[in-house]
TrEMBL record, chain A:
Recorded catalytic activity of this chain's protein: a quinone + NADH + 5 H(+)(in) = a quinol + NAD(+) + 4 H(+)(out)
Protein name, per record: NADH-quinone oxidoreductase subunit H
Record-stated family: Belongs to the complex I subunit 1 family.
Chain segments annotated as transmembrane: 6-26, 76-99, 119-141, 162-180, 192-210, 241-264, 284-304, 324-348
Annotated keywords: Cell membrane, Membrane, NAD, Quinone, Translocase, Transmembrane, Transmembrane helix, Ubiquinone
An MF annotation (GO) of this entry: NADH dehydrogenase activity
Lineage: Bacteria, Pseudomonadati, Bacteroidota, Flavobacteriia, Flavobacteriales
Root EC class: translocase
Biological process annotations from GO: aerobic respiration
Function according to Swiss-Prot or TrEMBL: NDH-1 shuttles electrons from NADH, via FMN and iron-sulfur (Fe-S) centers, to quinones in the respiratory chain. The immediate electron acceptor for the enzyme in this species is believed to be ubiquinone. Couples the redox reaction to proton translocation (for every two electrons transferred, four hydrogen ions are translocated across the cytoplasmic membrane), and thus conserves the redox energy in a proton gradient. This subunit may bind ubiquinone.
From TrEMBL, chain B:
Enzyme Commission no: 7.1.1.-
UniProt organism field: Flavobacterium sandaracinum
Protein name: NADH-quinone oxidoreductase subunit J
PANTHER family named among the record's database cross-references: NADH-UBIQUINONE OXIDOREDUCTASE CHAIN 6
Catalysis performed (reactions): a quinone + NADH + 5 H(+)(in) = a quinol + NAD(+) + 4 H(+)(out)
Principal subcellular localization: membrane
Record carries keyword Transmembrane helix: yes
Recorded superkingdom: Bacteria
Localization per record: Cell membrane
Length: 350, 170
């Protein structure tokens, strides 16, 4: 490994990190603006033009608040909880292909931190580890309400991970690869997976809501029953980390949705742009296309938050175990039958 | 010392230390968390052996699913160090016997797998990839694979039955 690769990957990792943080910051602003728009209000408009400096003001407030610690015997775990939540939210972005390649300084630069050939499994693995941040933080708070909130969040995430994994299996049967880069490349043009696997997409979308702990699945933060959920006892930047992790998760989920089902960085007419305007412009436009798609999903997340009320806990479990999991298994079977239709027809002699 | 050797030494130290801490720690939640760290370092060992798939699946299954359910039950049961029950002698004997059996199986695996891995090394095929693993599992080792899944199914049905029984008695 020569030093240029290290520099190149380092630049990409820092850029992705900065992008994730920036998007998480401005998602808080966008959420307020969308909420205000849906409820016919103005929203934040004091700090800067259109309230654009509101996230900076919020960050400053969170940083300067007094750090309050509950009387807990597990001070270290109390500290580790938000750290795990934040780092797992940031880790997923390593395997996402942000664009195809740039041709700079006489070398091809892949716009991706690392192209694992098991990228999709890596994503599922990181998501499944993310539960620890909530569970450990909630338990170490030494508070009943935090513990119940944490247990609720964890059981919800574990339940919906099953349906999420099963819905992805149907997609994998079609793509035949686990590498997110290859899955993106297969969807060149308008050959998006959502047209072939609509059911898989809907199940994955619902599970993404549950994994990011967003309404209608934000039972962990059910204020009327559980005060603030697992982060009741947290204050200052530790709470900020939990909130930030939620927005970072939303951003990453939107990106994964765009990459898996909506063609990733592909846009119609990309091959024409490559031929006429060159590789660099085509792929910068590709990054722009991915960015527009993921912003659409982020807006969708917010739209749903201010439209659909929160589910009851038994409804949540019913939806996860009795509807989504059987549906995804049926989806896998249908996909298998369609893929093998020629063999089946030959067997029965049609 | 090469970098890989240093990483191996650090990982092994972490694995052993957390494994011992799992056993000796008084607080059940702390020992569960040590076990999670132990699983992560074992996944690191898999990565050192260049088997990415095994490492990730290990994290998903053990750290992501089993240990979370474990933590779950421990948190809800609110176990304290005083409540630790004294294990009867037969349980200890069973533990020793199962440990010896696992050792036997592991030794058998290591002895048997060596010539098979050698074959792949000579052909130059990436035997850690999902394609090769899937083909081997569903062709050569189809029957043991299905037996393992039947075993899991039996365990699942058993648990459901046990939890139902308690409800009927009420």
């Amino acid at each position: 490994m020569d030093s240029t690769i290290i520099i190149e990957k380092g630049v990409i990792i820092v850029a992705v990190f900065a992008l994730t943080m920036l998007m998480a910051m401005y998602s808080t602003w966008a959420e307020r603006k969308v909420a205000a728009w849906l409820q016919d209000r103005v929203g934040p408009n004091r700090a800067g033009p259109f309230g654009l400096f509101q996230p900076l003001a919020d960050g400053l407030k969170l940083f300067s608040k007094e750090e309050f610690e509950p009387n807990t015997p597990n001070r270290f775990l109390f500290f580790v909880g938000p750290a795990i939540a934040m780092s797992t939210a940031l880790m997923t972005s390593a395997v996402i292909p942000w664009g195809d390649r740039l041709h700079l300084f006489g070398r091809d630069i892949l716009l991706q931190a690392t192209d694992l050939n098991i990228g999709l499994l890596y994503f599922i693995g990181v998501v499944s580890v993310g539960v620890y941040g909530i569970m450990i933080g909630g338990w170490a708070s030494n508070n009943k309400f935090s513990l119940i909130g944490a247990v609720r969040a964890a059981s919800q995430m574990v339940s919906y991970e099953v349906a999420m994994g099963l819905s992805l299996i149907a997609l994998l049967m079609m793509t035949g690869t686990l590498s997110l880069r290859e899955i993106s490349a297969q969807q060149a043009g308008m050959d998006w997976n959502v047209f072939y696997q609509p059911l898989s997409f809907i199940i994955f979308l619902i599970c993404a809501f549950a994994e990011a702990n967003r309404t209608p699945f934000d039972l962990a933060e059910c204020e009327t029953e559980l005060i603030g959920g697992y982060h009741t006892e947290y204050s200052s930047m530790k709470m900020g980390f939990y909130l930030f992790a939620e927005y970072a998760n939303m951003f990453i989920s939107s990106t994964i949705l765009a990459v898996l089902f909506f063609g990733g960085y592909n846009y119609p007419g990309m091959s024409w742009v490559v031929e006429n305007w060159g590789v660099n412009i085509a792929n910068i436009m590709g990054f722009g296309a991915l960015f527009i798609k993921l912003c659409g999903f982020i807006f969708f997340f917010m739209w749903v938050r201010w439209t659909i009320p929160r589910f009851r806990y038994d409804q949540l479990m019913h939806l996860g175990w009795r509807i989504l999991i059987p549906l995804s298994i049926v989806n896998i079977m249908i996909t298998g039958i369609v893929m093998l239709r020629a063999d089946i027809a030959a067997y029965f002699g049609f | 010392m090469s970098t890989i050797l240093i990483i191996f030494c650090v990982l092994s130290a972490v694995t052993l230390a957390t494994a011992f801490l799992t056993i000796f720690s008084r607080n059940p939640i702390h020992s569960a968390i040590y076990l999670v760290i132990c699983f992560f370092s074992i996944a690191g060992h898999y990565l050192l052996l260049n088997s990415q798939f095994l490492a990730i699946v290990h994290i998903i299954v053990y750290s992501g699913a089993i240990m979370i359910l474990f933590l779950f039950t421990i948190m809800l049961m609110n176990l304290n160090e005083e409540k630790e029950v004294h294990r009867p002698r037969i349980t200890r004997l069973g533990a020793i016997v199962s440990f010896c059996l696992i050792c036997l199986i592991l030794i058998a695996i290591f002895i048997n797998s060596k010539p098979i891995v050698g074959e792949y090394v000579t052909t130059g095929e990436d035997y850690q990839s999902i394609k090769v693993l899937g083909k081997v599992l569903l062709n050569e080792y189809m029957v043991p694979f299905e037996f393992a899944s039947i075993l899991l199914l039996v365990a699942m049905i058993g648990t459901v039955l046990l939890s139902k029984k308690e409800k009927l008695q009420k």
